[in-house]
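I keep forgetting this: the sequence line spells out the residues, with the fold written below as integer tokens. I include a record here:
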Amino acid sequence: MISPEHVYQRIARSKQLSGIELRIRSVYVKDNRTLRFWPFPGLANLYLLLFVVSDMPNQSIKPVQIITFPGVGDQESLPTAETIFYYVDDSGKETPGQLHLVASVIKSKKGLRNAGAIMESLQQDEAYNSLLQQLTGMARNALTAGAVIESIKNLSNVVGRYLGKVEDRPLATIMKSFTALSGDWDLAGTRTISIPTRNVDFHFDLTVARKEDAVA
């Protein structure tokens, strides 16, 4: 995992450097939709599924990430603070024009599968790779956020086939788009993006640095 200190050193301390980082601040599970009665504590096994698509390469991780969390109760935060998108251009000439995020918390009816094994299987799936290429092309061609999000839904269906026995509906799914056109990169610094849902509250930190705002 990339530390906040590493990001600060690479982004904020160079006059010629511009970059963007999207990091999970917290994923707070309010209700895991599991009954609690003696002697069962009402814990749930959860997957956090992340899709990030941009017209610039993600220098942190691949576009799809799966993180597993066993035994999560109500009113409990998932122990993660992952960087899910990170882009720096040392020349200070380019930043992403579009960044689209879909995050979903899914409850497994049985035990959790190994996330690494799932990703290995996915990377050999022709439909998965075809959709990833399609999404990258859509973002680079500046197609609408709605079109990109719809394709991410199709990608999530492919990933879902590899997750095993999960509930028909996730605990929560959120979608968020950031674009240069809408001014999401205009203010340098870090701001928190909070997206509450009925069962899960999502919080992300978006860090933006422009070369004219950076310090030596």
Notes: Strands lie at 18-29, 44-54, 64-72, 76-77, 83-89, 98-108, 172-179, 189-196, 200-209. The first strand starts at residue 18 and ends at 29.
